[in-house]
Amino acid sequence: MKHDASKAVAGESSSIAKNVVAGLVAIHFAILLIGAAAASPSSELQQALAGKFLGYFQLLDLGQGYRFYAPRPAPTAIVTAKLKIRDTDGRIRYETIRIPERGTRPRLRLQRQLALANSLWSEFERQSAGHQGHTHEPVIAKSYARHLGRQVPGCESVELFLHRHPDPMQVERAYRERDVLTLKSLDDERFRTPTESLGSFPCD
What we know:
Layout (H helix, E strand, L loop, with lengths): L1 H36 L6 H8 L2 H6 L18 E9 L5 E8 L7 H23 L9 H13 L3 E9 L4 H9 L19 E7 L2
Antiparallel strand pairs: 1-2, 1-3, 3-4
Helix pairs in contact: 1-2
């Protein structure tokens, strides 16, 4: 009898513990949803609710950037890689790879390409700025070039180029003013962005 009673007590304690843990997990996820909903653009009510849990976010380091593609994200950079390839017969040929490639599947891979292109642009900006005379090594560009070289047999070098789209806000403003009526109008100098070289890197 005593054994059965102790088992019943243990089972009841285990059930209570599970319910408590499940409740804490549910509360945690509810707070996460409140934080995500409060990211701009959001209402004053959403921001006020999130403000009540600010200490919780700071304690657990939950200050992630939600909705980082909105509203009005900056144009994604276009990265073009020109691969110099030596075939087995010794002939040289060139191959071009572009990211992001809109036909990429699965779509999650396209998101990774978008992130990589933006990272390459950010790295280029840091190099161009040359903060306090420090030279920033193109670590991401070198790594990406090395990755491409490993994917293509006979690759000798990879040259990377970067191009930005026109500022969509500027194009929209011109369109509203009936200044841009056709795609051909986008050839105007106001909407051009130069193609920048990120450098040439060996494949090995």
